[in-house]
């Protein structure tokens, strides 16, 4: 029993030496520790993922990516090889923290690459989000011409604002994203998993009569106002987008809320008719609270 315990302690000790060097990002120490570990415990299941992490630390390149393909190759390697190894060895929380500098360096190396529609994920903004640097992500998106009209960059900006300022700070961008790409908003909402947002989405799904697809989410911002009129100051900051019926619906609800506060009943009646003509389910949601 003592011998077995000793052997178990020996592999744990050597493995921990590798992990400690990796956490310090000491490439030489990590390689030496890995060699010692793999020499004695070549069949250990952590030998391979540890070497992946050692190689990641040894790669010290800070040179800008020459083109989008080079960035794509590096990004895919990080996602398919380095990230799984880090999460396996270090666990979800510590692994994600260890990966952040890897994403940060990649974002810095990608800074000179312009946005390309055919390379929708190969841009510094997406990498800054993975690194957890919301301010840098915002700056990177701002540098994309007409980003408010492009689903990918619009989604990045909405997420960065949410991460930086919380739900109230992101409502306007969420509204614009639902009009521009309800599918993109659907994916974003699922990923950030905000409790308040999820509660509203669940109620929306149960009460709004649409076609049952993500396209219904184009009406989400307008519907939210019928349930939570106190969000009007935040949603009202949304900039004019495609002027779709869903956007007109939210603008109309905003008008109605203002007219109701002012007691302008005749105009309220007229705007209610306009809302009914735009979407009867949205109109029903509005009237149910009156």
Short description, anyone?
This protein has 290 residues and is mainly alpha-helical.
Explain what you see:
The chain has a domain at 178-290. Helix 3 (47-58) crosses helix 4 (68-90), helix 11 runs parallel beside helix 13 and helix 13 (245-262) runs antiparallel to helix 14 (265-278). The longest helix is centred in the middle third of the chain and has 30 residues, at 151-180. 74% of the residues lie in helices and 0% in strands. The chain has 290 residues and is an all-alpha fold.
Structural class: mainly alpha
Average pLDDT level? 95
Tally of strands? 0
As a percent range, the share of strand residues is: under 5%
Largest sheet composition: none
Please write the string of helix (H) and strand (E) elements: HHHHHHHHHHHHHHH
